[in-house]
Amino acid sequence: MNEFSYTLNHRRSTLHFKTPPATFTTQALQRLVEQKRSAKRVSAPLDCPQSALFAKRQQLDSLKKKLRVAFGSVKRQDLNDWVIEELVNTAEAHKRGARVAPLIGFGYSRGRLGLMDDFFIITELFTGHTDGWQWVNANPKQVETLIASAFELLRSLHQQGISHMDLWAANVMVPDEFPGPAKAIDLENCFCRPTAFINETLGFQFGYFYFRGIYRFITEARYDELVDAALTHYPDVDRERFKHCYQLSKHEHVGRKDRRAVFLEGKLKSRW
After folding, report:
1. Which of 6-15, 105-114, 137-146, 224-233 is least confident?
2. Of 75, 98, 124, which one is at a domain's C-terminal end?
3. Which of 108, 117, 209, 260 is the most buried (most CB within 10 A)?
4. Which segment of 16-20, 44-48, 157-161, 174-178 scores lowest on mean pLDDT?
5. Do residues 115 and 63 make contact, with C-beta atoms less than 8 angstroms apart?
6. What are phi and psi of 2, to 5 degrees?
7. Regarding predicted confidence, which is higher, 66 or 207?
């Protein structure tokens, strides 16, 4: 709140910025606030090409969640609700120099009873980039190019002390002019602190990237070879501990809460 000291108030919404937005940006933000909610979560570029901003609007759909967000309380294991995790992680990752979208602003709208209804996060828009899922569907024969870019991004994030637990192709933004460094988006399921279970965390991350669609474009054997080569950049990894989470994550859906358990407790159990 100290960093984002400028407030923009419109109707029952308050948005916080470091500096006053330009007039055309302010008008676009007001239109965003005025829009009727079409879904529980809306993510899209702000309706203002001159601004080059990206806006997320998340409904707070329970009384407990509204109260936690309003009063800054946590749930368990010092974890916040998803919207606050994304806000804090985005700001912290950018401060560390990670290749993520800078946080431009955030805020909330209140209902008639004064409780928060929606939470907003405003970031810079990655122009000149395409998400990796769109890219690989348009360039299926170049899947290994995408994989190499994603693995390099994963390593870069780890070097910054960041574990992205939702790093699949769509959350990897690749430059339209390849080659070039990829960037990460969607940091709600992310940790900006060390883990005592790096082997399990890496196992999940590499396995999850394959599970979330990449398996359609590459054989599992070839993907395993690429992972094995990537692991040479992690000389201290325990391959046996890595392998357990890796194999499970390649073939089974791992929910958002289960991913947290991998990072915090090193636990990932098979559903079968």
Report:
1. 105-114
2. 124
3. 209
4. 174-178
5. yes
6. -70, -40
7. 207
Shared domain check, 73 and 32:
yes
The crossing angle, in degrees rounded to 10, of helices 239-251 and 198-211 is 30
What is the predicted pLDDT for the residue at 67? 82
Mean pLDDT of the chain: 93
Contact between 237 and 244 (Cβ < 8 Å): no
Nearest to 61 by CA among 11, 115, 106: 115
The C-alpha atoms of residue 203 and residue 261 are separated, in whole angstroms, by: 13
- Report field, pTM of the whole predicted structure over 0.90: yes
Radius of gyration of the chain (CA): 20
Domain that holds residue 65: 6-124
Task: Report how far residue 259's alpha carbon sits from residue 243's, in angstroms, rounded to the nearest whole number.
Answer: 16
User: What is the C-alpha separation between 216 and 242, in angstroms, rounded?
Assistant: 23
Q: For residue 127, which amino acid is it? A: T
Amino acid at 14: T
Q: Which two tokens stand for residue 77?
A: 């294991």
CB burial of residue 75 (10 Å; 0-12, 13-18, 19+): exposed
151, 85 contact by CB (below 8 A): no
Number of H helices and E strands in the chain, helices first, is 9, 11
- Rounded Cα–Cα distance for residues 78 and 61 (Å): 21
* Final residue belonging to a domain, choices 68, 94, 124: 124
Alpha carbon 9 to its chain centroid, in Å, reads: 27
Q: What is the dihedral of CA 261, 153, 226, 240, to 10 degrees?
A: -30
Number of other residues whose CB lies within 10 A of the CB of residue 111: 12
Strand, helix or coil for residue 206: helix
